[in-house]
Amino acid sequence: MAAPPLPTPDHDSQPFWDGAKAGRLSAQRCPNCGRFRWPPAEYCPHCHHHGGDWVSLPGTGVVQSFVIVHRAFDPGFEDKVPYAVAHIALDGADGVAIIGNVLTDPVDAIAIGQRVAVEFVDSGPISMPRFKPI
Amino acid sequence: MQAISNRTAITGIGWTAFTRSADRSVLALATDASLNAIDDAGLQTRDIDGIVTYFHNQDTIAPRQLVQALGLADCSYQMMSALGGGWACAAVASAAMAIHAGLCRNVLVFRAMKGQSEKSLPARIAAGEDQWSRPFGISHAAARFGPHVTAHMERYGTTSVDFGHLAVTQRAHARLNRKSMMTKPMTIDDHQASPWLIYPFRLLDTCLRSDGAVAIVVSAADRARDSRHGPVHIRAMMGGTLTNQHGTLGTPGLWELYAHRAGEKLYAGAEMTPDDVDLFELYDPFTGICLMHMEGFGMAGRGEAAARLRAGDAGLDGPIPLNTHGGLLSEAYMHGLGHVVEAVQQLRPGGVRDDFCEGAHDHDRAHCRQIRDARVGLVCGECGDSSLILTCDGF
Question: Is residue B192 domain-resident?
Answer without folding.
Answer: no
